[in-house]
Amino acid sequence: MPHPTSARPPSQQPALLTVTGDCLVAADFRPRARSRPPGPYRRLLSTPGARAFTVGNLLARMPMGMFSVSAVVMIAGTRGSYALAGAVTATGLAATALVAPWIARLVDRHGQARVAVPATLLAALGSLALVLCVRYDAPAWTLFAAYAATATTPNTGGMARARWAHLLGGDSAALHTANSFEQAADELCYMLGPVLAALLCTAWFPEAGTLVGVTLLVGGMLLFTAQRSTEPPARPRPTAKAPLRAPGVPPLLAVCLATGGVFGAMEVVTIAFADAQGHRAAAGVVLALQAAGSCAAGLLYGALKPAGPAEHRLPWCVAAMTVLLTLPLLAAALTGSLPLLALTLLVAGMATAPTMVTTMTLVQHRTPEGRLNEGMTLAVTGLLGGIACGSATGGWMVEHASPAAAYGIPVTAAATALLLTLLPPRRTV
Predict the structure, then answer these.
(1) Which structural domain range is residue 385 located in?
(2) 64 CB-near residues (< 8 Å, 6+ apart)
(3) Residues 381 and 413 in one domain
(4) Does residue 347 form part of some domain?
(5) Tell me, what CATH number does 407's domain have?
(6) What is the distance between the alpha carbons of residues 365 and 186, in angstroms, rounded to a whole number?
(7) Digit-coded pLDDT (tens) for 4-60
(8) For residue range 141-170, what is the model confidence (pLDDT) as tens digits?
């Protein structure tokens, strides 16, 4: 017959008594629950207010991967011209490159909520105007004017990174995790956004992608800016110099320009390669695999403790990106297999997120205090300029050579970025 105490649950088991010298000591042998220390991302999101502004920012950021695809499908489907659709989206990209730094400067000076909300509403009106112009067959010039108005969309990723920098202070390890998380979020949005936009525009009606994107943008921005406790303080009269004049920032912008060339060329060349294989519809899936590899690598990179300063890590990250980008070139040139190309793009994408995380970390370090959002937006502007140049160069190479040979453009752009990171720092007087 079992002892009566053995039927009790472990929490009710009595402690045993032992004699130590002249003292009677209670020894507690009851099992204790083992608590695992929280991971880096769990610690990051446990920061007060972090989850609320992250949800809003992700909702507002998702349309960034939707608007251009939605515009192309909407315009080309109703006007029957991909040339017109491409010209309209290129105009919006150029307008964003000019307007975005100005919007970011206003955000730094007057606060995120005061500037981002009206700027977002103005951009939303531009998108709605584009829908109406397409729907009612307005003159072509109205499409350009309406889409150019969307350039006032604030840099949502930059504002989120500015909040992390404000909340985390000088904790470099936590800031590294935050930057990795934001880069993975960028990749996720640019991976899911085009797929969602294409699905909405084809399954419902051509304007559906733009309308859903506007709803997500406005709703997410209102939720994001409502979290006032995590908003960085405004600097109405910043005493620091402009980021473009800060030591070490212009070389980083040049690296962003070259890195953007990788992204722009890769997208155009992959679409052309899949089209030449008779599988144009699969191009989106292939590009999504590249973004998935980058997203996974970004999360893994953020979970690791960075070794050495970011200045020393950046050349190694760019070198890895350059080497891995030769894999799609070899797969396309030697085999012509689309499945093998997709696999190599998945692997090559794993080097882009660490490169972008390290670059953005350096931009944060080198941007003068009080002008962080402006500095981050300049980096994004550099990326956009590089994407435009890479798209044009990749398209020219496809037309005059072949899609397989055009995969040399991303490799060349990555090698250019590597040379820029290896240049000796400019001495300041």
Answers:
(1) 243-429
(2) 153, 156, 189, 190, 193
(3) yes
(4) yes
(5) 1.20.1250.20
(6) 20
(7) 444 444 444 444 444 544 554 444 545 554 556 667 778 877 788 888 888 888 898
(8) 898 898 888 889 888 888 888 888 888 876
